[in-house]
Design goal:
The chain is mostly helical and 89 residues long. It is built from 4 helices and no strands. It is elongated. The mean pLDDT is 89. One of its GO terms (molecular function) is guanyl-nucleotide exchange factor activity.
């Protein structure tokens, strides 16, 4: 049940199998559209679409200020020195 973040790979796999496993048309003359394939695709898309919601997130001022005031490291040399402090060779 929403809210959740679905694993997109599952839905893409379903869509791939539907696309590869079913023909677009039921006959050689391409006159009759395969509506069963369209229905299966719509079921997968509808299920995925149910997770699209508008989330109302509030900003946390203290965290926002902290992140905005973090010093930035410009040179590769300084980044390397800091990385050696965190994790020596």
């Amino acid at each position: 049940h929403p809210p959740c973040i679905p694993y997109l790979g599952v839905y893409l796999t379903h869509l791939t199998f539907i696309e590869d496993g079913m023909k677009n048309h039921l006959n050689q003359d391409e006159e009759i559209i395969n509506f069963e394939k369209c229905r299966k695709i719509s079921v997968v898309i509808r299920e995925l679409k149910q997770y699209q919601q508008q989330y109302h997130l509030e900003t946390e001022e203290i965290t926002q200020r902290y992140l905005n005031n973090l010093p930035s490291i410009q040179s590769q040399k300084s980044k390397y020195k800091l990385s050696l402090i965190c994790e020596p060779k």
